[in-house]
Amino acid sequence: ASFSQKTYAARAKEHPHPLVRELLSTMERKQSNLSLAADVATKAELLALADLVGPHICVLKTHVDIIADFDADLVAQLQALAAKHDFLIFEDRKFADIGNTVKLQYGGGVYRIADWAHITNCHVIPGEGIIEGLAEVGAAKNRGLLLLAEMSSKGMLATGAYTDRNVEMAVRNPFVIGFIGSRRFTEERDLITMTPGVGLHAAGDALGQQYRTPETIVAENGSDIIIVGRGIYGPGKDPVAEAQRYRAAGWAAYERRLQR
Ligand code: 5BU
Known about the structure:
Layout: H1 8-14, H2 18-30, E1 34-37, H3 43-53, E2 59-62, H4 72-85, E3 88-95, H5 99-107, E4 119-122, H6 129-138, E5 144-148, H7 160-172, E6 176-180, E7 192-195, H8 214-220, E8 225-228, H9 230-233, H10 239-259
Parallel strand pairs: 1-2, 1-8, 2-3, 3-4, 4-5, 5-6, 6-7, 7-8
The structure holds 5-bromo-uridine-5'-monophosphate.
């Protein structure tokens, strides 16, 4: 059977990568395939949002370079919340440089991403050396990498042959645990797909974002995790109520997929 037809629990049991086993079993345990994209500007806002929504998500997606008052204590507090609420942390860094440079960016600098982010991602525009560089830092720490096989925004250029190259590189690099994209890309190994640009509140935004529904992404396209940002914490929203709504919608779509 296709991986999309198997339960997260069954895939967790069979998966060779310990981090993906942990991710898939967290999803099953919490009955959540929801990731929160927490694009807020301060440490206090990020911690408050993660504490509120934490019980409903499997992954917290961060952009730490947005946080005006980032410091090491933020990381310590995020890790405590990840333990308290049982979620993983995905720093959406989108590395895009040569292998030697991304090694320095991933392991060092102000953010020391490899020390705390279970998952990060990269563009493969520089070629396969970017994956090798990131793996040199992250593999020994049991981290995992997602390739940006597609993006959610209008006019994005990751299509066709470029997307296919992403899939080929992912299949042959064990540090790669999956993709950012809109669908399941391959059955060659159980690579996961996480999908941003999910929302029930709007068709898009003024800067090119495009939203699709959990039903399209999970039930029809076979993606594993929906990533929702402003649909949960946007102006006038109750983040807990919205997180519960997206979690229920994502899980219902997963259950429908298993019955297809
Ligand atoms: P939104 O508020 O749900 O639109 O936020 C979407 C988040 O996902 C935001 O953090 C983006 O940086 C991220 N994102 C995206 O929207 N589209 C993509 O293709 C990728 C990431 Br990759």
